[in-house]
Amino acid sequence: MNLRLEAGKVVVLVELLDTPTARALVSAAPFEARAQTWGEEVYFTTPVSAKLEPDACQVVAPGTVCFWTEGNALALPYGRTPISSDERPKLANPCNVVGKVIGDPRMLSGIKAGMPLRVDRA
């Protein structure tokens, strides 16, 4: 299962894990949203609502694709966030890990707050 995110000239492919949240995201695609940023993280709301899964994490590797259950949003950290204590991204809250960015996650830096984006099945 993969997703394709497009925002302006930035195209990101996401390899999804087989989790309930990831399956719900695939079922909901295609959908559109507006990008938000928080430090070196892009996030955006989705039409999906999910419960926190047992393996939810707050500190992840760059390029980890997470689902923020408190905001029904996908979070794509590619570096430090305002609450990071080291070089790893630290999310605002524990989030469901749903996959990873294929390729260099720093390409997410080309997505700016307010940009429209589209999520499709890939």
In short:
With 122 residues, the protein is mainly beta.
What would your notes on this structure say?
33% of the residues are buried. Helices cover 7% and strands 45% of the residues. The N and C termini lie close together (8 Å). The protein has one helix at residues 20-28, and strands at residues 2-7, 10-16, 31-34, 36-37, 41-45, 57-59, 64-68, 73-77, 90-101, 116-121. The protein has a single domain (2-113), classed as Cyclophilin. The chain has 122 residues and is mainly β. It is globular. Strand 4 (36-37) and strand 5 form a beta hairpin. The model has no long low-confidence stretch (mean pLDDT 97). Strands 1, 2, 3, 4, 5, 6, 7, 8, 9 and 10 form a 10-stranded antiparallel beta sheet that branches. The chain contains 1 helix and 10 strands.
CATH architecture: Beta Barrel
Span from first to last CA?
Answer: 8 Å
Estimated share of beta-strand residues: over 45%
Rounded average pLDDT: 97
Q: Top keywords for this entry?
A:
45% strand, Cyclophilin, mainly beta, 10-stranded antiparallel β-sheet, 122 residues, globular
Q: Mind sketching the topology for me?
A:
Layout: E1 2-7, E2 10-16, H1 20-28, E3 31-34, E4 36-37, E5 41-45, E6 57-59, E7 64-68, E8 73-77, E9 90-101, E10 116-121
Antiparallel strand pairs: 1-2, 1-10, 2-9, 3-10, 4-5, 5-8, 6-9, 7-8, 7-9
